[in-house]
Each structure stands twice: as C-alpha cells, then as structure tokens.
C-alpha cells in the first residue's frame, strides 16, 4: 500500500508540474481549428499514460484508473494551420460506459487502443468499433493503436492479426509504447492529418466542414459537445 501511495503521489506531482501549460493551452483562443479527439479502449491498456506522454512528455508506471472522463489540451501546427486538440481520456470500465459514450458526439477522431500483451483487450476492439459507429458521427476518423510494444517478450497479440483487423474495419494501425515514447507523436499527427484530409474533401465537395474557429465558438467543454461542432 505504501508503494502504491508513493506512485500515486508521483503521478499527482507529474500532473501538477504540467498543469500550468495545460491551462495556458486551454485558455488560448489563437487557433484556426479545434479538433475533439477521444482515446478509448479497455481499462489498463495505457490510455492515460499515452495521453500524458503526448501532452506533457511524462510517464509513470503507476496504474491510476480513470474515473469517468478527463481531458488535456494541446496546440499543434499542421499544414500551416494552428490546431487546438482537445483530447479526452475515457474510462474503460463498463460502469462508466454511459458517461463516456455521451462524449462521442462531436468527436472528430478516435484512438482505439488495446494492449499487445492482453488478448481480451484486443478481442474487445470490435465492440469498441461498434460503439464508435453507434454513438459518433459518420465522418469520425479512427486509428487502431496496439500499446505497450516495449513488452515484446510478453506479446500475446500478433502484429499480423491487428493489421488484418484494422484493414477489415477501415482503420489505420500503429503499434506504440507510451513508456518508451514509440510512435506516440506519430499516432496523433496521423490522426490530425486524416481529419484535415477529410475536411479538405468536404471543402471540395458538398459535405459539412467542421470545427473551424468562429466568433460564436466558446472554449468550454459541456458534456457531449466539448466545444466542437461538425
């Protein structure tokens, strides 16, 4: 129990250390687009660690279960545009499902994550994909992420099986590691790029263009909307 308490304290310290920058990013109104992104998947696959690695470049081995839903804000530059990413970290437990699925609406993109050392988390990917289809909008982009690729000796999910499933679902696929910072930035950049590509297609056609900053958009995060509209 003492070890767990110390681990939780370290996690809290890492969060507090980066909170000032996160608050600054959240309050920043100087952006061209805002994208609402969700990280979903079974509990303990590493969703929170993945988000912390990307947003704050921090990592802790302590497992702290996400209660309900949390988010971070990060501003990036892609294709000469300043894009504010509102990244939601969802709880994987079934008891939070009603809460978390309420946030699917308005999401531009999803990271659907499983643990390469946990077959059950991979088997659940199809169910998570069905939830995306059920609760999100049709133009939401999805990347399948096999996390914890640093644990190759403990692998239970072959890369080939994941590639095959991603192809069947029409998702792009990465294996990554929050611990060793493998493909974390690349995953988010890829998701942002495919969302931008979809928006450009909409500009060229008759489809709706979403999440462009305008004077009516508020930087608040009400349930189910998160400041996004598409």
Automatic annotation (TrEMBL):
One Gene Ontology term of the biological-process aspect is: regulation of exocytosis
Listed cofactors: Mg(2+)
Q: Which InterPro entries match?
A: P-loop_NTPase, Small_GTP-bd, Small_GTPase, Small_GTPase_Rab
Q: Which SMART domains match?
A: RAB, RAN, RAS, RHO
Taxonomy, superkingdom: Eukaryota
Primary localisation category: membrane
Keywords (alphabetical) are: Acetylation, Cell membrane, Exocytosis, GTP-binding, Hydrolase, Lipoprotein, Magnesium, Membrane, Metal-binding, Methylation, Nucleotide-binding, Phosphoprotein, Prenylation, Protein transport, Transport
Subcellular locations according to the entry: Cell membrane
Under which EC number(s) is this enzyme classified? 3.6.5.2
A GO molecular function term, named singly, is:
metal ion binding
Tell me which Pfam families the record gives: Ras
Q: How does it sit in the membrane?
A: Lipid-anchor
Q: Which Gene3D superfamilies match?
A: P-loop containing nucleotide triphosphate hydrolases
Q: Where is this region: Disordered?
A: 206-230
Report which reactions are catalysed by this protein.
GTP + H2O = GDP + phosphate + H(+)
Q: Would you tell me the Gene Ontology cellular component terms?
A: plasma membrane; secretory granule
Q: What is the annotated role of this protein in its UniProt record?
A: The small GTPases Rab are key regulators of intracellular membrane trafficking, from the formation of transport vesicles to their fusion with membranes. Rabs cycle between an inactive GDP-bound form and an active GTP-bound form that is able to recruit to membranes different sets of downstream effectors directly responsible for vesicle formation, movement, tethering and fusion. RAB3D may be involved in the insulin-induced exocytosis of GLUT4-containing vesicles in adipocytes.
> Which NCBIfam families does the record cross-reference, listed alphabetically?
small_GTP
What is stated as this protein's family in its record? Belongs to the small GTPase superfamily. Rab family.
What protein name is recorded for this chain? Answer: small monomeric GTPase
